[in-house]
Backbone:
């Protein structure tokens, strides 16, 4: 049974700004995916989750994890990519990732503070894209972030008020 988009009560999402899945990045994306799938599974039939990733290669990997965990409520979950963003935004993100790698390496070798390691550009870019997509898809005006499920800091969370509340 497919739940109509206007019937969802909990709409949640995570934004992953990594441009590849090297090192521990794969585990971090997989963990956020599992958080979303768990919430969908435990809350009720009126929960929708969305994960935004950098490109189709990462999206394909997410789909392999979905099959691995035998998640069968695909109408309640969606993976989207940042592909619609401008080349300028993508270049800024790639530059930030290179700067982070350099700063992290210098920190590890020379014990220099990680002040140059920041993910603010990617974080902002992905979270804004996630919010814009969900607000348009579900025709949400003002976001109601009250009582996010499981105490998780979702990158996007909206709870639709029901008549009983």
Residues:
């Amino acid at each position: 049974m497919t739940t109509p988009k206007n019937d969802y009560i909990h709409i949640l999402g995570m934004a992953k700004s990594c441009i590849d899945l090297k090192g521990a990045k794969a585990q971090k994306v997989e963990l956020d995916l599992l958080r979303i799938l768990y919430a969908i599974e435990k809350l009720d039939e009126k929960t929708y989750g969305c994960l935004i990733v950098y490109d189709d290669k990462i999206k394909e990997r997410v789909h392999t994890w979905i099959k691995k965990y035998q998640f069968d409520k695909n109408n309640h979950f969606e993976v989207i990519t940042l592909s619609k963003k401008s080349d300028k935004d993508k270049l800024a993100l790639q530059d930030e990732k290179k700067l982070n790698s350099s700063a992290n390496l210098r920190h590890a070798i020379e014990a220099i503070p990680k002040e140059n390691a920041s993910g603010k550009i990617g974080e902002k870019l992905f979270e804004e894209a996630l919010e814009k997509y969900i607000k348009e898809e579900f025709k949400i005006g003002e976001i109601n972030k009250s009582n996010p499920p499981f105490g998780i800091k979702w990158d996007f969370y909206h709870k639709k008020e029901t008549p009983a509340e």
